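Help needed: design a sequence for this.
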């Protein structure tokens, strides 16, 4: 199983592009901050995660600073890269 659900803030958004098949593709940089329990102790967790939206979701009106909750899967950026990228399948805005 390869499923990740995470809440994050959009830190950066690249320009909308298109795959060779003509699908819209949008790359994002996500910033996650939380506090988690590990071995009975609280741990502050911070990470930056590259993410991508492919297809109709790439046309969503998103901007830097948006708080979102996403669900997707992890994959290598390309066959020649070891960088992990989150492929977003579901996205919802978090309202505070």
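Sure. Designed sequence:
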């Amino acid at each position: 199983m390869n499923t990740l659900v995470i809440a994050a803030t959009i830190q950066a958004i690249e320009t909308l592009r298109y795959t060779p098949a003509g699908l819209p593709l949008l790359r994002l940089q996500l910033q996650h901050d939380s506090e988690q329990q590990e071995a009975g102790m609280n741990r502050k967790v911070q990470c930056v995660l590259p993410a991508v939206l492919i297809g109709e979701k790439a046309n969503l009106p998103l901007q830097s600073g948006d708080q979102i909750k996403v669900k997707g899967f992890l994959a290598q950026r390309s066959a020649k890269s070891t960088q992990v990228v989150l492929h977003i399948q579901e996205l919802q805005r978090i309202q505070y």
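The beta strands are 4-13, 17-18, 24-38, 41-54, 67-76, 84-93.
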